[in-house]
Amino acid sequence: MFGRGGEELLACLDARVEVRIVPGVTSATAAPALAGIPVTHRGLAQGFTVVSGQVPPGHPDWTIDYAALAASGTTIVVLMGVRTLRAICAALVSGGLAPDTPAAVVADGTMPSQRVARATLSTIDAAADISPPAVAVIGAVADVPGLG
């Protein structure tokens, strides 16, 4: 999803290398699902938004409107955001998302070493003692009773 698939495809085509695309399931939905976190759930979230956390808020290359994201009413899924999670959470709170919004981080999704940390938007960065790869999920679905 945020990989370099398009760039690599173009490079192969430019080099006249035959390419076959094999679709897969994105970690943005697979890792949370395996941790018991649906990215949508009737009555809680009618959609989800996936963003890259590679560029933190305030960075010159930053393009995400966190206030709009906070107001979207969708589940927010952050890929590649372990290093920037604190800044992203702060930007979402500054943008109007409640600090007590449920949040979770799924590290090593689908692996035997998979770990899940659950907290709130204002505490998830401290609660999640994680290293990449990890997927963060922000929204009511991160705390669905009976799941996970």
Q: Could you explain the architecture of this structure?
A:
- The protein is of the alpha+beta class.
- The chain has a single domain, classed as Methyltransferase, Cobalt-precorrin-4 Transmethylase, Domain 2, CATH 3.30.950.
- The mean pLDDT is 91.
Q: In the CATH classification, which architecture applies?
A: 2-Layer Sandwich
The oligomeric state is single chain
DSSP helical segment count: 5
| Biggest sheet architecture | 5 strands, mixed
Number of strands: 5
The CATH topology corresponds to Methyltransferase, Cobalt-precorrin-4 Transmethylase, Domain 2
Strand adjacency order, main sheet: 1-2-5-3-4
**Which structural class is indicated by helix and strand composition?**
alpha+beta
Walk me through the topology.
Layout: H1 5-14, H2 27-34, E1 48-52, H3 66-71, E2 75-79, H4 85-94, E3 102-107, E4 115-120, H5 124-127, E5 134-138
Parallel strand pairs: 1-2
Antiparallel strand pairs: 2-5, 3-4, 3-5
Brief overview:
By secondary structure, the protein is an alpha+beta fold. It contains five helices and five strands, in the order ααβαβαββαβ.
Distinctive features:
5 strands; Methyltransferase, Cobalt-precorrin-4 Transmethylase, Domain 2; 148 residues; alpha+beta; 5-stranded mixed beta sheet
